[in-house]
Write a structure and sequence with these properties.
Layout: E1 3-7, E2 18-25, E3 34-36, H1 41-46, H2 51-57, E4 67-71, E5 80-88, H3 98-111, E6 117-121, H4 127-140, H5 154-160, E7 173-177, H6 184-208, H7 216-230, E8 233-237, H8 239-245, H9 248-254, E9 262-268, E10 276-287, H10 307-322, E11 327-337, E12 349-351, E13 357-359, H11 367-379, E14 385-390, H12 394-400, E15 405-409, H13 412-425, E16 429-431, E17 449-450, H14 458-467, E18 475-480, E19 486-487, E20 498-499, H15 504-516
Parallel strand pairs: 1-7, 2-5, 2-6, 6-7, 10-11, 10-14, 13-17, 14-18, 15-16
Antiparallel strand pairs: 2-3, 4-5, 8-9, 9-11, 12-13, 15-18, 19-20
Helix pairs in contact: 3-4, 4-6, 6-10, 7-10, 9-11, 10-15, 13-15
């Protein structure tokens, strides 16, 4: 991963391969629509104060995500200046918000693949700005090329672990100019960025790994290794243990696959904790739809259907690395949904871990079945709150698009707090309702409940189904990340093509706020 450092050095004398500066749109200006952002004063001075004009001549507008490269001025030890757009200039006396800095740094880091060292002269007015730039660099420099070029076999591919971007190594080092190396707050901000982003990138790796190399057993092994490394207690229930425990939902979904299901429990505890959180993740390592088979064009990216479990896994490890004063338990409900002679059929009835029976009307509505067992298991420990994360419904994508996830909850204040935490860390989310009238559509003549209801509002129906498996009196939220979990388009900001790591930063922030007693 890219190394982050804080530097008080002046841009002209710093030995680096490139200097990154910010530029913005100046909507108020009549003659010049581009302004050089704070942090780049020394660079602008070297151009005799005409840097904005030079960049405009080269076509720069300051638009978010725009990159303009030009030779560094005489006397600079770095040969290249990279101007990255920050979007509109903030109002007077207001600084650039954290997300603008994060995205700009991500764009620049991706543009500098193959470069050994870059100096980032972006606006840093406080430690939080340094943390945002650091996050942007670490997330933007990410790539997953483990199965390309010189990866001779699967073992070599895994060892390579995405350390090249189109044949070029990711940016090796980023020095943040204007940072304060001896300031505890600045150092803590970068340390936090490194811990969170390294685990988020690990989640991206898992989402991007082909399903022939990441079945439930393999995923569980990754979790076990990380738990051992970071002092996290881990428990893995295999098919035998799941059968003995009566986890009918997880077993029912995994019944058609040659790769058996797993339920992984990760427990991070702090001796100073007064609150406890449970995170539950959907981990369908490949979703064919089962007997209700997905049509061609809808199954090619279904390796990403374990993104919720990857996010939960990453968040628990990040909480441990940060030493948060809150107990966090992660539940990874892992299965592969395949059609075969042993697969669950539409019309079958499953007895869940809670004892409730579910009539399976559609085997492609499988995520809610594995989550139901894990949610009930989490409820037995009576945490202060439960949050589940899942690529659950196409309906949520239709409602909110590909970049925003839905937040549902059994408590309006908690839903608002989770939504606020998501927006704070730069993960677009939107609060969604759980309309009571939709519950009736899941009534079954055969079982306690069906796994399908009304087609309209399908994402909300899924949330209502999950609510049935939350223990009494426990606060719960459901994050449907079906849209933003896997980016099928081109990269943008600090978001790569493929697995995005959506919800990791939200979960970590919720844990931090809970530890501080500030959630909601």
């Amino acid at each position: 991963m890219t190394a982050l450092t804080l530097s008080t050095a002046a841009a002209p004398g710093l030995r680096a391969d490139a200097i990154v500066i910010g530029v913005a749109k100046n909507a108020a200006a009549k003659s010049q629509g581009l302004v050089v952002a704070p942090g780049a004063e020394a660079v602008d001075e070297a151009y005799d104060g005409r840097l904005a004009g030079v960049l405009e001549t080269l076509g720069a507008t300051g638009a978010e995500g725009e990159v303009t490269k030009l030779p560094a001025p005489s006397g600079f030890k770095a040969p290249l200046v990279v101007a990255v757009g920050l979007g509109s200039q903030p109002e007077k006396d207001a600084g650039f918000d954290a997300e603008a800095l994060r995205r700009a740094a991500g764009v620049a880091a991706r543009a500098l693949a193959g470069v050994k060292k870059a100096a980032f002269a972006l606006p840093l007015t406080e430690a939080a700005d340094a943390g945002a730039v650091g996050e942007g660099v670490l997330l933007g420099a990410y790539s997953f090329d483990a199965y390309k070029d010189n990866a001779k076999d699967a073992k070599d591919a895994k060892a390579k672990n995405g350390n090249a971007k189109n044949g070029k190594a990711p940016l090796a080092e980023a020095a943040l100019l204007g940072g304060k190396p001896r300031d505890k707050a600045y150092k803590a901000a970068l340390e936090r960025a490194a811990a969170v982003c390294e685990e988020l990138n690990r989640a991206r790796d898992l989402v991007n790994t082909p399903p022939n190399d990441l079945d439930p057993e393999a995923f569980a092994a990754v979790a076990q290794a990380a738990a051992k490394e970071h002092g996290i207690k881990v428990q893995v229930l295999d098919e035998k243990a799941l059968t003995k425990g009566g986890y009918g939902g997880i077993l029912g979904v995994g019944a058609g696959s040659a790769s058996g299901p797993r339920l992984v429990k990760l427990s991070y505890t702090s001796s100073k904790a007064t609150k406890s959180l449970a995170f539950v993740g959907k981990g369908i390592t490949y979703d064919s739809g089962g007997i209700s088979l997905k049509p061609a064009g809808h199954n090619e990216t279904m390796k990403c259907d374990m993104a919720g479990a990857a996010a939960v896994f990453a968040a628990v490890v990040a909480a441990a690395r940060l030493g948060l004063e809150v107990n966090v338990t992660g539940w990874l409900a892992l299965a592969e949904n395949m059609p075969s002679g042993s697969a669950t059929r539409p019309g079958d009835v499953l007895r869940m871990y809670s004892g409730k029976t579910v009539e399976v009307l559609n085997t492609d509505a499988e995520g809610r079945l594995v989550l139901a067992d894990a949610l009930w298991a989490a409820s037995q420990e009576k945490p202060d709150a439960i949050i589940d994360v899942a690529t659950l419904t196409g309906a949520m994508m239709l409602a909110l698009g590909n970049r925003t996830y839905g937040v549902m909850a059994n408590d309006d204040a908690f839903r608002a707090a989770v939504h606020e935490a998501a927006e704070e860390v730069g993960e677009p989310a939107w609060p969604m309702p759980l309309p009571e009238h939709l519950r009736k559509g899941m009534d079954s003549a055969t079982a306690d409940i069906a796994n399908m209801g009304e087609r309209m509002g399908g994402g909300l129906v899924a949330g209502l189904f999950l609510r049935e498996f939350i223990g009494e009196g426990i606060t719960w939220a459901h994050l449907d990340i079906a849209g933003p979990a896997f980016n099928e388009g081109g990269p943008f900001g600090y978001t790569p093509k493929g697995g995005t790591g959506t919800a990791v930063r939200t979960l970590v922030r919720v844990a931090e706020l809970t530890a501080a007693g500030d959630l909601g």
